[in-house]
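Hi P.,

Sorry for the delay on this. The queue was packed all week, but I finally got your sequence through. Input first:
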Amino acid sequence: MTLPIAWADARKTVFEAGSAAAPGPTPVPLVDADGLTLADPLVTLTDLPAFPTSSVDGWAVRGPAPWRIVGRVLAGDHAEPLTEPGTCVEIATGGMVPAGTDAVIRIEESDYDLDAVHKGTARELPDWRRPGEEADRGDELLPAGTPVTPGVIGLAASCGYDTLTCRPAPKSALLVFGDELLTTGLPGDGRVRDALGPSLPAWLRRAGTEVVHVRAPVGDTLADHVAALRAAVDAGAQVICTTGGTMHGPVDHLHPALAELGAEYVVNTVAVRPGFPMLVAQLPGGQFVAGLPGNPQSTFVALVSLVLPLLAGLTGRPLPPLSSVPLGADVPGRGDFTHLALVRLVDGRAHPVPHVGSSMLRGLANSFGFAVVPPGAKGVAGEQALVVPLPILDGERA
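Then the structure:
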């Protein structure tokens, strides 16, 4: 009999396995880098800004007033130095401030005509940005392992990057086991609707993968399981998620299929409730198979417990951090097992939600993550608890 591994140890184990198997970095054009992961630190290639730039429309002046107007500098122009006191140039916001400038005076705070600026007062805080004000050349702006967002892409472009060295997004597949599953229509007469085939690919995409293959349902025979796993490998999946079949019952064929394919277990059963049993194995070709339970809520416990740490390792990101939130109500423990309890945030506190049976999805749809109750403990209202968030897209969590 396989003894279950502690939940925290399981997360670390699959993360380390993913890190060891992470593909090499590759240069990616900025426009294609969104959602990938920085393989190298983002280091400034130049001072930011690279040259002094005006923050306002106005006049770059040298010496005391009045100032004779000797030119104009628009954004994108090269500015010739101001060499004589009593001279100025008209300057636009973003324009290069000429060498020799003593001050930039706002146009609305000056008295001028076509030939000269007769008076104006510079503000106490200079109205131009100096080189290196945001960052000096060679400064590290972001560490390796940072997810690439539109903001990161914009920052990289401002530093002069044309490409970013990134870890590629892992390719994933989903196999939903079960002859009892319907893919359309109403459940009944012993058949249930497949809720995982339509929903799990979306969760996998939110976790940063490219879903390249989905098959739902897969028949409850060993031959069908083996063929489905081979098809997912042929589709290029590096992570193959399966649902159901993780027990050892008469129609549970995942373990025999893994044995037939020569897989080795990374983690085989985890001491967590709900979600028992779950596993991660590695095929001889390096692909990972994440065996998730078939009951929907248990499926998502396995997703956050094993799949997300595995994907973090594969993409070069850090192990997904756990936040700490005060509980809004008591949460029972589950004896020697870690309890992952669905919670939603209300006024900054994590409140357990109803309808959280292992086969239910209503509670999950109203939750933002799972509160972690350690083995031999219970969650107490008002006390801090670790929370495992569900994967989200930018802007989904307020």
